[in-house]
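Protocol step 4 of 5: obtain the predicted structure for the target chain.
Materials: sequence only (see below). No template structures provided, no constraints applied. The aim of this step is simply to have a reference model before the mutagenesis design in step 5. Sequence pasted as it appears in the construct record:
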Amino acid sequence: MKGPLFYSKILLFGEYGIIKDSKGLSIPYNFFKGALKVSEEPNEEALASNKSLKAFATYLTEIEDKNVVKFDLEAMQADIAAGMYFDSSIPQGYGVGSSGALVAAIYDKYAEDKITVLENLTREKLLRLKEIFGLMESFFHGNSSGLDPLNSYLSLPILINSKDNIEPTGIPSQSTEKNKGAVFLLDSGIIGETAPMVSIFMEKMKQEGFRNMLKNQFVKHTDACVEDFLKGDIKSLFSNIKQLSHVVLDNFKPMIPQQFHTLWKKGIETNEYYLKLCGSGGGGYILGFTQDFEKAKKALKDYPLEVVYNF
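Step 4 output (structure tokens):
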């Protein structure tokens, strides 16, 4: 058995903000992928994944009581007993949707009356999928918007206008000119945990000053970045990303690993690159934007960089 491939995702804009109804833009990232498999000679990773799927199957029996989704759990349990695991190159704790791809794969294989990618995806269907995926992925994160699995399942860029308004979208085609502007991933070398970061955020949300900053600065610049990116207005985009990078450095310090504070600040001061959180932060990948990738590469020569999109 070998299931279809599901890809990682990158939330370009909207981390934390989408909890408070900012816009967001999520794109599939085909560099990493995963599929359900059964192996005759499982290695340690496959055994660990199989064990995790066992616990996940138990959790899915509980969410069936909510009457949102039904699974063929007998088939799933039989496959797990036969040694099924999720074979994935998506790094865990890196903010690129490792649990999202797994959730998408399980829904695709075992959901009954599933909504398929081939049908006309109305807003109602997208929101229903998002709700189902949010419930399923909560097993891994304690709380999930359902966006990561949705992105992985559809393999399309998704524009989040607000919590209840999401749509597949087109993004400007990438530039073929070499070494101009780029969106890139910087590997922090640290594994991040989503749940503790979300707890810190929720704790901060109790402060009026933080809530005001979120609304008047963070959400404002995030929304502008999404609009600029979709319109292809690079000049305005970089002006807004610089502001956003500044707001994150000033207000989201716990989500930025300590050793990257100086590097973050240096980007804003030199304009060679701007950094922002990729997912919940706390480690994993950091997202970078630059108008000159060669310059950014030199400035960040101590870190592995991976290009996601060329301007």
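Step 4 remarks: The longest helix spans residues 208-231. The mean pLDDT is 93.
Proceed to step 5.
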